[in-house]
Design brief:
Elements: E1 21-26, H1 35-46, E2 51-57, E3 72-76, H2 83-86, E4 93-96, H3 105-112, E5 117-119, H4 123-130, E6 136-138, H5 146-160, H6 163-174, H7 177-187
Length: 197
């Protein structure tokens, strides 16, 4: 049974206007979450005229690593009540570089909000990308042409994917309303019906 997302917190919001593409990283700034790749990406974005990086983290640990960068913004302390409006609505692509995940809620939240995800093949993202789920992509390494490649992915997403339909698809597959159905399918006859032996 997969984790669930409350789709009401991740409605599709109008993309905030910007003259650049915005990559969002949401999560803790820790080595296991792919901090080295995030730093590498930030250095690449720093040399770009087309991209900026938004980092949304729940505490200030390691935020100082990005303080000197002019194309990177760090926002600390966003929560379920405001991360969609303050972060996902600004993103053209969500970056998910984690080394290991049992699930990876960021991927589902982003897709629910109508934003494509580019990440390492871990957790649910690996399965989604393998099944060609709209907006789910994995990378192996951050090569020199990666931003150009990602620009193509974002542009294609805009042309080919209806963000509202994607939200509905995520809600159907991973929303709270499907949780009971998943358990019913797994447990079947083993559910306690209230009968005694």
């Amino acid at each position: 049974i997969y984790n669930r997302v409350d789709a009401t917190h991740f409605e599709v919001l109008p993309k905030k206007p910007s003259d650049r593409y915005t990559i969002l990283y949401a999560g803790r700034l820790e080595p296991g979450k792919g901090l080295a790749n995030l730093e590498k990406l930030a250095a690449m974005v720093e040399q770009s005229q087309e991209w900026c990086l938004l980092i949304a983290c729940n505490n200030a640990h390691n935020a100082d690593l990005f303080a000197h960068l002019k194309n990177t913004e760090v926002v600390i302390g966003l929560g379920l009540h405001n991360i969609n409006e303050a972060a996902y609505s600004r993103a053209d692509l969500v970056f998910f570089p984690s080394h290991s995940e049992s699930f990876g809620m960021i991927s589902i939240e982003a897709l629910c909000a109508g934003v494509p995800v580019m990440g390492t093949p871990v957790g649910i993202l690996r399965l989604l990308a393998a099944n060609k789920f709209p907006g789910a992509h994995v990378f192996k390494e951050l090569g020199p042409q990666v931003l150009q490649e990602w620009k193509g992915i974002v542009d294609n997403f805009r042309l080919q994917v209806n963000r509202y339909d994607l939200h509905q698809l995520v809600d159907h597959e991973f929303g709270i309303s499907s949780y009971r159905k998943e358990w019913d399918a797994v447990l079947g006859d083993r559910l306690d019906t209230g009968k005694t032996n």
